[in-house]
């Protein structure tokens, strides 16, 4: 760590303490050249990938937007807030661990549909109708048939 006073690169850690919340470490340091003391804070910096929209624009990942769109699909459905929060957390985890700096919005939409498929079939069809821009009843029927096929494949008879 470089000294903010003399720019010497040689400093020593005198004291380290974890914050009450447990999310940062406070380090008291001493410069070996000028003998001045200063404090640094260490915290985890999690980088979520940027989302590349269909029109090519890039936006920062917004977990509140993800939560809101899934909550809208689950509106008036028998799914707990805890289950919704867990699904959002799983999507965030998959995006974070992907190692990618940019992710197409289509990929995020598919992750959402995968989670909704497990949570509630009605919410899945609701989300799919908006996400895939259904224009007629035939497309709804196809989505329901797709859900049934996937459900039958998961259920060994």
Automatic annotation (TrEMBL):
It comes from the Bacteria. Keywords: ATP-binding, DNA-binding, Metal-binding, Nucleotide-binding, Repressor, Transcription, Transcription regulation, Zinc, Zinc-finger. Residues 49-139 form the ATP-cone domain. Negatively regulates transcription of bacterial ribonucleotide reductase nrd genes and operons by binding to NrdR-boxes. It comes from Castellaniella denitrificans. The gene is nrdR. InterPro entries: ATP-cone_dom (IPR005144), NrdR-like_N (IPR055173), RNR_NrdR-like (IPR003796). This is Transcriptional repressor NrdR. Its cofactor is Zn(2+). A zinc finger (unnamed) spans 3-34. Coiled coil: none annotated. Belongs to the NrdR family. Binds 1 zinc ion. It holds the Pfam family Zn_ribbon_NrdR.
